[in-house]
Amino acid sequence: MTELDKFFQKINNLLKEEKLLKEERMKRGELFNIFQVMHMEADEVYTHSAFIAHLLDTQGTHGCGNTFLKLFIETISDLQGLNFDLVNPIKVKVEESIGTISNKNDTGGRLDIIITDHNNNAIIIENKIYAGDQKGQLLRYHKYAQDHHQEKYKLLYLTLDGHEPSKESTGSKLEIKKDYDCISYASEIKLWITLCIEKSSQRPLVRETLVQYLKLITRLTHQDMETNTENKLKDLCKDPENINALFWIYENFASVINTVMNEKFKPQLIELASRKKLEINFKSDDWFNTNYMEFMFLDDNWTTFGITFQFSRKGLKECICGFKYIDEKQCKTKLELYGNIHEHFKDHKHSDGWPAYKYLDAKYKDWTTKVGIEMINNGKLIEYIEKCLNYYLEYTKETSI
After folding, report:
1. Are 168 and 133 in contact (CB under 8 A)?
2. pTM confidence score
3. Structural domains in the chain, sorted by start
4. pLDDT per position as a tens digit, 349-397
5. How confident is the model at residue 31 (pLDDT cuts 50, 70, 90)?
6. 203-241, pLDDT tens digit by residue?
């Protein structure tokens, strides 16, 4: 048995142990989560922004006054230089409109969360669970903050893993630590909620809701492995005997994912296109490393737009689908067709290259997770792709694109 085989065998033993532990927790009801039951686990506006904003509201029904806000400021190191007034009443708003987005994408939009104090100090949070960046988004919010709060504000870019915003969002004009700061659910928000739980011990309803939310965060950020299993995994990984195997897996991860996509999933997509009497084009065979990796379904009668699935982030993350210009040089042409699609799909987003697009449901957005690979192997992902494709094909039966 090779060194690599031995390592995989040890990992498989841990996975079996993890499965048994989770089954025991299931029997005890410890995996119950109200956010997950209500299918609200990835809703940025009505779950995460609303919940976080209410905790930060000193007049919130949690009854803890400014305790949670104070803990938030103490947890986010970048806020500690902001002389925020914790004595007088504050204002907390969610989805605050700052005007219609201008043609130049340099003003307007909606602030996910804004907290202002008696002295016009402001904390502005741009909250991202799975949604991608909009053109000029962070630049617009920065300009608004400068115009309305001068230097008395902090702009926070909140994501699951703390990654930086795209250049499209900042307009390549903003600097991290100077104009905005990045925070994550995996680190800062998780720590903050943990501290809030400690401070709410005398309020059982509040405490239990916070515990539920903390469990949701750990699941969304892939930190929900059993502690005992996690410690054993760490011991395995730091064992000198396993170092070579560990680095082999790390260095070949992208190659393995590409093999799965090209040998397992790509044939499924080609077969789907054939059944629908469509063509399908793939941007690259390097699924994992290609920026904005996409595949597009086409018909001989479609002259301007194709039905496209595209990943907003490299690594097969944050997949969107909708109608996209077949040729990017056509952008901002055939405006009547563009307008018709945009008007029909009113619940969708749009951009210069897309008259209508939406993010896939939370479960299907990221394809390199354990769940994503399982759905490729058991056929659930291709079923979902077909469902989305059929939805857009209905529109093409009514009008030309």
Report:
1. yes
2. 0.70
3. 34-220 (3.40.1350), 248-396 (no CATH)
4. 888 789 999 888 877 888 988 788 889 989 999 999 999 999 999 999 8
5. confident
6. 999 999 999 999 999 988 877 766 667 677 777 777 777
